[in-house]
Design a protein that fits this description.
The protein is an alpha+beta fold and 364 residues long. The chain is built from 6 helices and 26 strands. The chain starts with 14 loop residues before the first helix and ends with a strand. 25% of the residues are buried.
């Protein structure tokens, strides 16, 4: 018979049993983790082999607005983060109150970063010479930069400026223009929770005669909820590609104006265009073929600048094809501008006969 000292309390339990009892919660936690892991693996396999039947387009999440039947398309979160790093906001310090607060209207616009060295661009029809000296440029982390140089492209009202910093996110991308289509979904970087839609191509003016180098038609934009459009903002696609800027009239100023300038901008700090500055009218011309009349759309040349004399084109030629593609009021101007070659191959209708000509581009 064991005797315990009288001044000590009796033992509550055996030590081995107590240690086993203390390990019970750990064992239960282990089994719970194992069950959850098995469930997650099973659901992952089901999602891999049997995609959800209402899965949306890659890069887009489609949800229903509460209490409404309209669909709200949300940009993929990863693309959202990338886009936020590719833009900067410009403010006028003359509208800065107390050195800390910007008054309403102080924001000049939102710009797309074009290079790691700090080149950026934005649509600014109200630009006045020298105002950039009063700008503050703010990135997604709230860091502030000054503008060291600026180049104005007055034709489309685009400004290019360089910030006094480096290591910016300069991986801007541009869309495949041949794949761009009506009803493509667009976003403004200033409101990635609100989507817009690309509309039909619209004529910008009622002029029947116009320069081939001048933009005469453009895509329109509409909101899915009927709200006001974000005028002058950059527009992006679901993959983050920079489509262009939204003009005040609700049309898109295409970003191919920008992409055409990158080499010149980065190398010399200047912008400029090469094109074929003929003036004329879009026509539907009847062609007398083998006992049938075929209607062919083209561009009737009514004015030829002196730089193009003897260069293949003649007055009253009808441009039918450019680089093997049928003439198009929107696409032809873009294709000529983006073409890297010094000459452009055209097929023209001259006196009822189809003729192939090579036309040398001139500096505009």
């Amino acid at each position: 018979m064991k005797i315990f000292p009288p001044h000590l309390p009796p033992r509550a339990c055996r030590v081995p049993f107590r240690r086993a009892y203390q390990s019970v919660p750990l064992i239960l936690a282990f089994f719970l983790i194992a069950i959850l892991s098995a469930f997650t693996t099973t659901m992952g396999a089901i999602a891999w082999f049997m995609p959800f039947q209402y899965m949306s387009q890659p890069g887009i999440t489609v949800v229903r607005a509460p209490g409404e039947g309209t669909e709200v398309k949300l940009l993929d979160e990863l693309v959202q983060q990338q886009v936020k790093k590719r833009i900067v906001h410009i403010y006028d310090t003359r509208e800065k109150l107390g050195g800390a607060y910007y008054a309403t209207g102080a924001k000049k616009g939102t710009a797309m970063i074009l290079s790691a060295e700090g080149w950026a661009t934005m649509l600014l029809p109200t630009y006045t010479w020298g105002e950039e000296y009063f700008w503050e440029v703010v990135d997604y982390q709230g860091r502030v930069y000054k503008v060291s140089s600026l180049v104005l492209d007055s034709a489309p009202d685009i400004v290019y400026f360089r910030m006094n910093g480096d290591r910016f996110r300069g991986d801007v991308s541009f869309p495949d223009w041949d794949m761009l289509d009506v009803k493509d979904v667009l976003w403004s970087p200033n409101n990635l929770e609100r989507s817009m839609m690309l509309g039909d191509i619209d004529i910008l003016s009622n002029e029947k005669s116009f320069l081939l180098t001048k933009e005469h038609a453009a895509y329109t934009v509409s909101t899915l909820d009927g709200d006001e459009l974000p005028v002058y903002d950059p527009l992006i696609l679901k993959n983050g590609a920079f489509v262009g800027f939204l003009r005040k009239d609700g049309t898109v100023l295409p970003s191919w104006y920008v992409s055409a300038q990158l080499v010149s901008l980065f190398e010399t700090g200047t912008v400029g265009y090469s094109g074929i500055p003929v003036k004329g009218t879009v026509v539907d011309h009847s062609v007398n073929g083998e006992h049938v009349y075929e209607v062919v759309s083209g561009f009737f040349v009514s004015f030829l600048p002196y730089q193009l004399y003897g260069g293949g084109l003649l007055l009253h030629d009808v441009i039918i094809e450019v680089e093997g593609q049928p003439f198009h009021i929107y696409e032809t101007q873009r294709d000529i501008l983006l073409d890297e070659h010094d000459t452009v191959h055209m097929r023209v209708l001259r006196g009822g006969e189809m003729i192939d000509v090579d036309v040398k581009k001139v500096r505009l």
